[in-house]
TrEMBL record:
Domain NAD-dependent epimerase/dehydratase: 18-272
MF terms in GO: oxidoreductase activity, acting on the CH-OH group of donors, NAD or NADP as acceptor
CDD domains: AR_SDR_e
Lineage: Eukaryota, Fungi, Dikarya, Ascomycota, Pezizomycotina
Protein name: NAD-dependent epimerase/dehydratase domain-containing protein
Keyword Transport among UniProt keywords: no
Amino acid sequence: MSQNPVSSSTKSPEDRYILVTGSTGFIGAHVVDNLLARGYRVRGATRSAQKGEQMKAARPQYASKLDFVVIEDFTKTGVFDSAMDGIDGVIHVASPFFLDTTNNEQELILPAINGVKSILSASAKEGSKIQRIVLTSSFASVVDVDRTPPREFTYTGADWNPLTYEKAVDPSSTSVIAYRGSKKFAELAAWDFIKNEKPQFDLVALCPPMVFGPVVHPVPNVESLNESNSDIWSVAAGTDPLPKARVTAWIDARDLAEAHVQALITPEAGGKRFIPASSEPFSYDYAADIIKEEFEWAKGVVTDGYTAGVKPVASYGVDGETVARELGVEYRSFKESVVDLVKQVKETIV
Ligand SMILES: NC(=O)c1ccc[n+]([C@@H]2O[C@H](COP(=O)([O-])OP(=O)(O)OC[C@H]3O[C@@H](n4cnc5c(N)ncnc54)[C@H](OP(=O)(O)O)[C@@H]3O)[C@@H](O)[C@H]2O)c1
């Protein structure tokens, strides 16, 4: 597409209105804050009016800039139609991300796919001003977990997880496999929509690996922490054995929010698929070292049953460099991310 009106010079951020789905979740709330800090008006889509109210109450300085729309079941056709009035751009973050499932297809895969179809159809309705949609996909839609690539291999936005739909929905598949399928087939549905429907907007897909960092959404207790952060907190809380990392790549949620907003306003990003990821590998052993070193209270709590003092080594490369270069994102260190989260949980949530 020739021009992205979310960034064109005829309108300032103050005149632009961005819809963020998953706005009361871990990553979505950071995206909301990044947009507000830049001056955008933001409409958050949420399943919970109460969480929307809590987000607003925690941001009194943005009272006139932030509103929420409650969409209880975003997989139903047409539910987003009335939320689109005046919207200039969409960041679609919402997707089920929990692993304690009873029916993988119904709880993870179909909601992810139908949520994408629903928001894209609403954005393509006649009269829509939307010119760009940024989709939070996942490294799960990129990585081939059955392959052991050589250390010098680097995954890029051109790679796709070869998982089949049949395997993803097979009742004997784990929820982790089903989650990978939910992200792959939801992202494919978005690219197919662009190809087949030729809407007035273009698409940018972001495929982050593990995401950690402090929370800015309502989290009443540690049990309500999102999936990825609860693993880091479990290390601080003394879990033994430590969680098993499925990948060594990660990104801080604040940097990921920056990548989303840059993807929304950078004209050249249209039609591209990126992997926002720090070049520094992580491990839960390294998290345990950091937590013990930084927090006096954790010294006797964190388990000794792990390999201490060994910096993680990536088993293959992940191209986070393209996001740094093309979207201007600088990555925080794993240490900063872990310290900020653990300090916050210990002081304000536990
Ligand atoms: N955290 C990671 O390590 C990681 C890594 C790669 C990709 N991602 C992706 O990032 C996105 C956000 O995840 P997160 O880590 O921020 O987790 P999260 O806190 O659990 O957020 C998930 C968000 O999706 C919404 N959602 C889930 N199922 C929904 C449904 N059926 N209908 C409507 N909304 C639904 C939730 O809405 P409510 O707020 O209303 O509950 C929540 O806001 C997801 O697309 C996830 O796949 C996460």
